[in-house]
Write a structure and sequence with these properties.
Blueprint: H1 2-17, H2 20-38, E1 46-50, H3 56-64, E2 71-76, H4 79-87, E3 95-99, E4 112-118, H5 127-137, E5 138-148, H6 160-163, H7 173-182, E6 186-193, H8 211-220, E7 222-228
Parallel strand pairs: 1-2, 1-4, 2-3, 4-5
Antiparallel strand pairs: 5-7, 6-7
Helix pairs in contact: 1-4, 2-3
Length: about 230
């Protein structure tokens, strides 16, 4: 596990150095905003942004929960990404960024009312261990929101498995829902979140064959996994 997490840290430190951390906001802002709206955040909530990258979504969360004990914590395995997040967040008082692997959240049990993870869950070497950890730090009745673009029902994402420099998981909606239930989560639901950002007429990037494939990818949308920790009986 240590070696796998070390590879992730090295890879995303390189992404940070190349400016990819800031690019993620433009790439994911549409699906992120729709998901954050689904979270029904309120002032005073304590929320975790797991795999926060350069912290752009963490800042959105922090502003949504301002008031009382409301705070947003961003956690990422890349120390370079966390450095970027801290530097860009000096004007946000209720935000905190920490470095750490996803299967080790440095907080006490049942602390967070809401947990969000945007476009990072498929990178985690041991997804089962991550879910155990998220269940631990989530308050009874709290809600988990996992948003990912790489999953079996969006075939245009599957080419990434070979293109990415680190191993990733490609699972089905059914497999993810079953995994959540197996770890004690209830009210598990699966939704698709379409990306409404404009698609260029011509595409020359590395991740899709052409603009039409990118357009179809956006229309199918990201996979949103929703779940709750049971209330105390």
């Amino acid at each position: 596990m240590a070696d796998a997490n070390d590879k992730l840290r090295i890879e995303f430190n390189e992404w940070a150095e190349k400016g990819h951390g800031e690019e993620m906001e433009a790439h994911h802002i549409s699906i992120a905003q729709q998901t954050i709206a689904r979270m029904a955040l309120k002032p005073g909530d304590r929320v975790l942004d797991l795999g926060c990258g350069a912290g752009w979504a963490t800042r959105l969360l922090a502003r949504a929960v301002e008031g009382g004990p409301g705070m947003a914590v961003g956690q990422d395995i890349s120390d370079e990404m966390i450095s970027l997040a801290r530097a860009a967040s000096t004007d946000v008082e209720n935000v905190l960024f920490v470095v750490g692997a996803a299967d080790e959240v440095p907080w006490r049990d049942e602390y967070f009312e809401k947990i969000l993870s945007i476009e990072s869950f498929y990178y985690y070497p041991d997804q089962e261990a991550v879910l155990r950890e998220l269940y631990r730090v989530l308050a009874p009745g709290g809600a988990l929101f996992i948003l990912i673009n790489l999953y079996n029902e969006n075939p245009n994402s599957l080419r990434w498995v070979e293109q990415l420099k680190v191993p990733v998981h490609a699972r089905s909606e059914h497999e993810y829902a079953a995994m959540l239930r197996a770890h004690g989560f209830v009210e598990v639901a699966v939704e698709h979140v379409s990306d409404f950002t404009p698609t260029p007429d011509q595409y020359s990037g590395a991740w899709f064959a052409n603009a039409e494939e990118l357009r179809e990818f956006k229309q199918i949308g990201a996979l949103l996994l929703l779940a709750h920790k049971p209330e105390i009986a």
